[in-house]
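residues and backbone:
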Amino acid sequence: MSLSNSRPNISLREYQGPDAYARRSACTISLASNKKSNLNTHYANVPLPTRLEQICLPHNPEYELFDHKGGHFISKCQEKLSFGDMCTQSLPAKFSYASLRKYLHPNFEGHEVTANLNFGNLEVGNLVTSLIHTAGPLNNNSVLRATHWVFEDLSFCQTLSAQIRTRLEGSAVNWREGLAVECLSNLQQRVWSLSPD
């Protein structure tokens, strides 16, 4: 990103009026303005006698979001903002299926993931649950997100539901399959919520 680092004339976090009511946080984004407050101009000190119009002035600053860490106004940012990195589920460093880690990013637009997964494994359960609830980027041609395109295919949804049902029936006889049942149930709920019928 090629934005020039600049400092706004006034930041709401430094403005003396509401400063007493501010709650401090680690967030580096706040409201700021390039237009000065009248308190920082020649209007701050008015000699007496004076007229009411010279004292009661409009509030000059025009606030917009400013990134103090990056040193730029958000509106000047040319790149699309993404919170994807903050919304992905973290997995242990020694994750057995480390090669599948890349599919956790919400902007993943892959069309096929083939793997022999053990749904009774806690790591796999976390991975699949995360993938189930990943929204992904917008799709302008559909109410579904871009990563959900496959759920528009009724045949796919029916086949997946049949596979889930078969696996759940097989898990019914094994009481140790609790994680697999939970994972498969979550997947089935997602199929029902995204499928066309």
Remarks:
- The mean pLDDT is 75.
- The two ends are 44 Å apart (CA to CA).
- Residues 128 and 161 are 16 Å apart (CA to CA).
